């Protein structure tokens, strides 16, 4: 049986104590520890179940600062292994004077959207006071989680494991796409299609939801909604609503939930009977890719209510899809902000560009991120968490602008209560 393992790599300069940390974690002499710089030549790889972390593949790498041709080869090998790792532990001996190599490792890891944790390995208690000085030379070091240990002291094993568990998002953490799904129940998927909608396939969230429902022995039914008709002021909207109701009524049993494109939440909030759960694809995706951090995105909505003159909002989209009509990021959100918060500025970040200076924003409104890998999505969320800026997403935003009760309703399936204002 293939065991799914997180890959954790230990990186740093020679003699920083990388192999000692490997042995501390594995509780055995997995790697040779010696005071000779460059003791570890090629990466030492250990497969182990570490109690608390789970099954992992641990890489103890060579120091990347050896100044020789062989040293260059060791560095290339270490960086090749870095690509394979989910978590990069950068080990720093605080008595070190220069931090160029440590900065290089962090930059490499960030470019590849890796998770990074910093471990200061203290050889002498006196060295601890060097940490603040050294941190001045590593840009944005304060945005990383850091721990100070003594690698040769086994009492630091559990604090190290706790530190990893607390800050590392395992890609194997079990997250259900629709935790409210019940076997044997029916689910209606609302899919408006327009000229932009690609032919021949569903969008990723739609395909994932349909597959998940089917896999779990429940029954999906897709309903193509004509948004123009549904929103029209004449007879057309009644005809479209009748078509929806007749499908809904054709179920022998009421569907358990309706999952809608967030663009159609204004209609579905009105049309879906109260006894049927209602949520959006966008909320489903953000819960999934953020590994269950939905509450964090609700907190972002609270920040939206509190925006004040001079604040700046970042509207972020993860891809450069073609933008037409009532586009959410370039039309709907700006219109809402212009109308409700005329003194608030907003900026956009599209595609790979994602604000260099996130701390200057009072709120980030992010798209559903359906084209992002979970690693990329999580990397963005971590960047946002580090600067402590509230974040929400398009699905929640579009629900909220229908009224707080609409937001409360789309969150209900997720067991999240949104407190209405008095
Ligand atoms: N006093 C003290 N010595 C340590 C500590 N951690 C490591 N050492 C010693 O520092 C030396 C280097 O430790 P290693 O774990 O081999 O360092 P490394 O980063 O793997 O080094 P290379 O493989 O050469 O890149 C060894 O003699 C260790 O015993 C510590 O926390 N305190
Ligand atoms: S990644 Fe974001 S902007 Fe691109 S299609 Fe998905 S939700 Fe829209
Ligand atoms: Mg070593």
Describe this structure in words.
The chain is 37% helix and 18% strand. The protein has 422 residues and is of the alpha/beta class. It folds into 3 domains: 6-167, P-loop containing nucleotide triphosphate hydrolases (Rossmann fold, 3-Layer(aba) Sandwich); 186-283, Rossmann fold (3-Layer(aba) Sandwich); 296-414, Rossmann fold. β9 (257-260), α9 (265-271) and β10 (277-280) form a beta-alpha-beta unit. It binds guanosine-5'-triphosphate, iron/sulfur cluster (SF4) and magnesium ion (MG). Guanosine-5'-triphosphate is lined by residues 12, 14-20, 33-35, 37-40, 62-63, 121-123, 150-152.
- State the CATH superfamily name of the largest domain: P-loop containing nucleotide triphosphate hydrolases
Strand percentage: 15-25%
Termini Cα gap: 55 Å
Q: Give the cofactors and ligands.
A: guanosine-5'-triphosphate, iron/sulfur cluster, magnesium ion
SSE order, one letter for each helix or strand: EHEEHEHEHEHEHEHHEHEHHEHEEHEHH
Q: Please compute the radius of gyration using only Cα atoms.
A: 25 Å
Q: Biggest sheet: strands side by side, in what order?
A: 2-3-1-4-5-6
Observed structural traits:
six-stranded mixed sheet, alpha/beta, elongated, binds magnesium ion, 422 residues, binds iron/sulfur cluster, 3 domains, four-stranded parallel sheet, Rossmann fold, binds guanosine-5'-triphosphate
